[in-house]
Design goal:
The complex is a heterodimer of chains A (about 160) and B (about 220).
Chain A: E1 2-5, E2 11-14, H1 16-19, H2 23-30, E3 38-39, H3 45-57, H4 61-67, H5 70-80, H6 85-98, H7 101-115, H8 120-127, H9 135-144
Parallel strand pairs in A: 1-3
Antiparallel strand pairs in A: 1-2
Helix pairs in contact in A: 3-6, 6-7
Chain B: H1 6-12, H2 37-57, H3 67-74, H4 79-86, H5 90-95, H6 97-114, H7 123-135, H8 139-152, H9 155-167, H10 171-184, H11 192-201, H12 207-216, H13 218-222
The chains are: A mainly alpha (about 160), B mainly alpha (about 220).
């Protein structure tokens, strides 16, 4: 068992087999730095619970194919990424920090799927990003690669 | 945009603690004169703002995504998507620059491949362009590079590029990888070997689905240009 501590001081016990899917923690364990609690100052408990849920489910990833649990795992993944943008952002940042390769792929894929074929306005609205580009800068992007601004307009709806 | 240097990029990457501007704080006797008080105040204010931003917004501010994560998300984007994402905000615009360049190489490569747009068809130059695009992280360029390698008979290299694109979630890359592996491992066990191979990639858990797609529509899968 490995103990993880979130930035709001909650401790979680996770099986080593699950937690070593994180390259960062795997390295820590290999280097013998994980004898006591591992503090994770960048991750809050809500996000950490999500991540641990993923790690526990994917603990037997290799075996899943043999036992026919692949569909089960796929369904779990689909359910797992079915979350709001804010939560997804937190999980992406946590996965990036902990270096959990597959979780990263899963979340990035989900983000990409949601952003595909959306207009600039729609993306800004969905992600609550304020436009900090000046008009000149916007023009500069267009001038930089004018050919990239040909072609059809895309979906303006937010969902 | 053209003048953006790597150094600029580094400065623009937001880190904590934020970089000191080396300003009034380090000026001797700065608090003696009233004039100097102003920048001091502003400095501490911006600092404070940043801190509170970190606390209240760090969970939702997508404009703060690290560039490598952003590039990963946008790796499979086609031109219209990339165009939209580049205009979202400044940090996205800067972060996605490699992928916009990749699109340029991709376009170039396609011209060379087919001999269009006033250039003579040259498969080696096409490959060169696709490789440049692939190096910048675009899965579209990876798939095209894989395709050229495959056509040249350099199957291993072709598969390697398809695999790279497949791992990043590119559907054309995943399909082509499936087809190539099926072709390479012909015979009764042809289906089993690619299955276990693809499991090593681990990004696709839905292999059975993907392979049925491959078998149903092999031509469509190849028409990724």
């Amino acid at each position: 068992m490995v103990k993880l501590k979130s930035n709001d001081d909650k401790e979680f016990e996770v099986e080593e087999a699950a937690v070593i899917q994180s390259e960062m923690i795997k390295n820590m364990i290999e280097d013998g730095c994980a004898t006591s609690v591992i503090p994770l100052p960048n991750i809050d408990s809500k996000t950490l619970i999500k991540v641990i849920e993923y790690l526990n489910k994917h603990i037997n990833m290799g075996k899943a194919a043999e036992t026919g649990e692949e569909d089960d795992l796929k369904e779990f993944d689909e359910q797992f990424v079915n979350m709001g943008w804010e939560e997804l952002f937190d999980v992406i940042m946590a996965a990036n920090y902990l270096n959990i390769h597959e979780l990263m792929e899963l979340c990035c894929q989900s983000a990409a799927d949601r952003l595909k074929n959306k207009s600039v306005r729609a993306v800004r609205e969905m992600l609550k990003i304020t436009n900090d580009l000046t008009e000149e800068e916007e023009q500069e992007i267009i001038n930089d690669a004018p050919w990239a601004f040909e072609g059809p307009e895309i979906d303006d709806t937010v969902n | 945009m053209a003048a953006v240097s790597p150094e600029y990029h580094m400065i623009n990457q937001r880190t904590w603690p934020c970089k000191s501007d080396g300003g009034p704080r380090f000026t001797a006797f700065s608090f003696v004169t009233i004039n100097d008080n102003k920048p001091r105040l502003r400095h501490s204010l911006t600092n404070h703002n940043y801190q509170s931003n970190q606390k209240t917004q760090n969970s939702s501010d997508f404009s703060q995504l690290p560039d490598d994560v952003l590039l990963k998300i946008a790796a499979t984007f086609t031109l219209p998507n990339l165009r939209a994402a580049s205009q979202v905000c400044k940090s996205w615009c800067d972060g996605l620059k490699p992928l916009r360049e990749a699109m340029l190489f991709l376009k170039c490569g396609k011209r060379f491949k087919r001999g269009r747009g006033g250039v003579k068809a040259d498969i080696n130059k096409a490959l060169e362009s696709f490789l440049e695009g692939a190096a910048r992280g675009s899965t579209l360029a990876m798939v095209d590079a894989g395709l050229v390698y495959w056509e040249m008979g350099r199957k291993e290299e072709g598969i390697a590029f398809y695999r790279k694109a497949a791992v990043l979630g590119d559907p054309a890359g995943q399909c082509n990888l499936g087809i190539c592996l099926l072709q390479v491992n012909t015979g009764v066990n042809g289906m089993l070997k690619p299955l276990s191979e693809a499991q090593n990639i681990q990004c696709f858990t839905s292999l059975s689905v993907r392979f049925s797609v491959v078998i149903k529509a092999p031509r469509q899968a190849f028409s990724c240009e």
